[in-house]
C-alpha cells in the first residue's frame, strides 16, 4: 500500500517502485513501528485529535497486529513500499479507514528514525551481552594460564618473556572498552525524535516528551530539524560494531598463527575447526579466519553510511534509506560471529610446555641485563649499550646470554657481577615485572580478577537495561 498518491495522475513506474522499495529489509522494524505508533496514539488521544473510544479501537488493532507480525500471520506484500506502509495496511485491514487516523502529527521521517533507534538499542544490548560472554571465556582461560610462561612479541619478533594469561587477558580489556562504548552510546543517544513530524514539529502531538518516556528514552531531542536529520547514532553504532569486529579479527589472527605447526601453541577443538575436501589430514582454524575476515564488511558498513551522510542537506532526503542495510548486516554478522568465537576460545587447549621453550629465545632477556645495571645506578642509555654488547658477544660465539662466563660479563662492564644470573631466566624476568599492569604472576592474577568483576558488573547493567527495555516494548 502506498501512503501517498492523491496528487499523482499515475502510479510509479515498475522500475521506480522496485528501486524505492525497502520493505524486504526494513520489515525488521515492524515490532518497533507498532510500539512507536501506540506511543504516538497516546499523544493524539491526550490532545483530543483521536477520541478515547477510537483510540481504544486503534490500540486494540495495533496490539493484535503485533501478535500477527510475531506469529507470521501478517507480513509484507508486493504492494508495500516500506514497513510503515505495510503496518498501516494491516491496521486498516482490521478497522477500516479509522486506521489512517494514526498518521496525524507524524511523518515517516520521524517514525523511521524512532523505530530504527529502538531496533539499535535492542540489538546493541544483545551484542553487548554476547561480548561479555566472550570476555568471561577469555578470563577463564587467562586464569588457567596465569602461570604459563611464553615469549612476548613486538614486531612479531621475540621481545620479552611474559605469562600467557597476560597475553589472553589483554583481549578482555579491549572488549570491555567495547561494552563501555555501547553504554556511552546509550547515554548520548537515548533521546526520541518522535514529534518532529516531517521536519517542523506538530501541534497535534502535545507531549512528545511523554511518548519519549513511554518508549524508554530519556527525553525528546531538542530540535525537530535535527531530529529527522541526525544519523550520528547510526554512525557511532556502526563504529562500535566495527571496533568489536576489529578486536575479533586480531584475536582470530592470533589463533590462526598459534595453531600452525610452527607455533603449536593451541589446539582448536574439533567442533570449532573445519576440514579440507582434498587433504584428509587437514584441520583448519576457519572460525578464527572468519573472525579476521568479517571485520572487512563491518568497516565497510560504517564507511558506506559515513559517505552517504557526507554533504547531505539537513532534514529528510531519500538517501537516508541507505542507512538501514549496513546496520542490519553489522548486527547480524556479530550475532553469528560472537557465539562461535566464544566457543572456540572456551574449548581451546593451549600448550604451555611448547610456549615455554621459546620464552628466552632471541635474546629476550637482554632488557633484564640493562635493567640490572640501571638498578645499580648506571644510566639506562649506557646500560642499554652494555646489554647490546653482551648480545653481540653471544651472537659471535653462538651462545645464549646465560652461557656468558663471569669473566665475559666483567670484561664487558664491571657492574655485571655474578648476581646477574638471577635475572637471566624467564621466571626471574617475569617475577620482576611487578607493576600493576605488568606480567608478574600476582599482577596478572589481579588484572584478571578486576576484569572479571568489571565484566560481571557489565552483565548486570545489560540485563537490567534489557528488562527495562522489554518492559517498554511489551504491549
Ligand atoms: N523507507 C524510508 C526510509 O527508510 C522511510 C521514510 C520515507 N520518507 C519519505 N519522505 N519518503 O528512510
Q: Can you offer a commentary on this structure?
A:
- The strands form 3 sheets. The protein has a two-stranded antiparallel ribbon.
- The mean pLDDT is 96.
- Helix 8 (208-214) links the parallel strand 3 (191-192) and strand 4.
- The chain starts with 13 loop residues before the first helix and ends with a helix.
- The chain is mainly alpha-helical and 475 residues long.
- The longest helix has 37 residues, at 108-144.
- Helix 6 (108-144) runs parallel beside helix 10.
- The chain is 62% helix and 4% strand.
- The chain has helices at 14-20, 23-26, 30-47, 52-71, 83-95, 108-144, 164-189, 208-214, 224-229, 232-258, 286-309, 324-347, 352-357, 366-375, 380-397, 406-412, 426-431, 441-473, and strands at residues 149-154, 157-163, 191-192, 219-220, 266-267, 349-350.
- The site of arginine has 11 residues, from helix 6.
Amino acid at each position: 500500500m502506498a501512503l501517498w498518491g492523491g496528487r499523482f495522475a499515475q502510479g510509479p513506474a515498475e522500475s521506480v517502485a522496485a528501486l524505492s522499495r525497502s520493505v524486504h529489509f526494513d520489515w525488521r522494524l515492524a515490532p518497533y513501528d507498532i510500539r512507536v505508533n501506540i506511543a504516538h496514539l497516546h499523544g493524539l488521544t491526550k490532545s483530543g485529535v483521536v477520541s478515547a473510544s477510537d483510540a481504544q479501537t486503534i490500540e486494540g488493532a495495533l496490539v493484535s497486529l503485533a501478535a500477527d507480525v510475531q506469529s507470521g500471520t501478517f507480513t509484507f506484500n508486493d504492494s508495500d513500499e516500506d514497513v510503515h506502509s505495510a503496518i498501516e495496511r494491516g491496521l486498516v485491514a482490521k478497522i477500516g479507514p479509522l486506521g489512517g487516523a494514526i498518521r496525524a502529527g507524524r511523518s515517516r521521517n520521524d517514525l523511521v528514525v524512532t523505530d530504527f533507534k529502538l531496533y539499535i538499542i535492542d540489538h546493541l544490548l544483545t551484542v553487548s551481552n554476547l561480548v561479555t560472554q566472550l570476555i568471561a571465556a577469555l578470563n577463564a582461560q587467562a586464569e588457567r594460564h596465569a602461570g604459563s610462561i611464553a615469549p612476548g612479541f613486538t614486531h612479531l619478533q621475540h621481545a620479552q618473556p611474559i605469562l600467557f594469561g597476560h597475553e589472553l587477558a589483554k583481549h578482555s580489556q579491549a572488549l570491555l572498552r567495547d561494552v563501555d562504548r555501547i553504554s556511552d552510546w546509550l547515554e548520548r543517544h537515548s533521546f526520541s525524535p518522535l514529534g518532529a513530524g516531517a521536519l517542523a514539529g506538530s501541534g497535534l502531538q502535545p507531549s512528545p516528551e511523554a511518548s519519549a518516556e513511554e518508549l524508554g528514552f530519556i527525553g525528546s531531542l531538542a530540535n525537530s530539524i535535527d531530529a529527522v536529520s541526525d544519523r550520528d547514532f547510526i554512525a557511532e553504532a556502526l563504529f562500535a560494531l566495527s571496533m568489536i569486529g576489529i578486536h575479533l579479527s586480531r584475536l582470530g589472527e592470533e589463533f590462526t598463527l598459534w595453531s600452525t605447526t610452527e607455533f603449536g601453541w593451541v589446539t582448536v577443538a574439533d567442533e570449532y575447526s573445519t576440514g579440507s575436501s582434498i587433504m584428509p589430514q587437514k584441520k583448519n582454524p576457519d572460525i578464527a579466519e572468519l573472525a579476521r575476515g568479517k571485520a572487512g564488511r563491518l568497516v565497510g558498513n560504517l564507511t558506506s553510511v559515513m559517505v552517504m551522510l557526507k554533504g547531505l542537506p539537513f532534514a529528510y532526503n531519500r538517501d537516508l534509506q541507505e542507512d538501514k542495510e549496513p546496520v542490519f548486516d553489522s548486527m547480524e554478522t556479530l550475532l553469528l560471529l560472537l557465539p562461535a568465537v566464544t566457543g572456540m576460545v572456551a574449548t581451546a587447549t593451549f600448550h604451555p610446555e611448547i610456549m615455554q621453550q621459546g620464552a628466552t629465545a632471541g635474546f629476550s632477556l637482554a632488557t633484564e641485563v640493562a635493567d640490572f645495571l640501571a638498578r645499580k645506578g648506571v644510566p639506562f642509555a649506557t646500560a642499554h649499550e652494555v646489554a647490546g654488547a653482551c648480545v653481540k658477544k653471544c651472537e659471535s660465539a653462538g651462545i645464549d646470554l646465560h652461557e656468558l662466563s663471569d669473566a665475559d660479563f666483567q670484561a664487558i662492564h664491571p657492574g655485571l657481577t655474578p648476581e646477574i644470573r638471577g635475572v637471566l631466566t624467564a621466571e626471574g624476568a617475569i617475577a620482576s615485572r611487578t607493576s600493576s599492569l605488568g606480567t608478574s604472576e600476582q599482577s596478572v592474577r589481579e588484572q584478571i580478577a578486576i576484569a572479571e568483576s568489571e565484566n560481571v558488573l557489565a552483565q548486570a547493567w545489560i540485563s537490567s537495561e534489557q528488562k527495562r527495555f522489554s518492559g517498554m516494548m511489551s504491549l
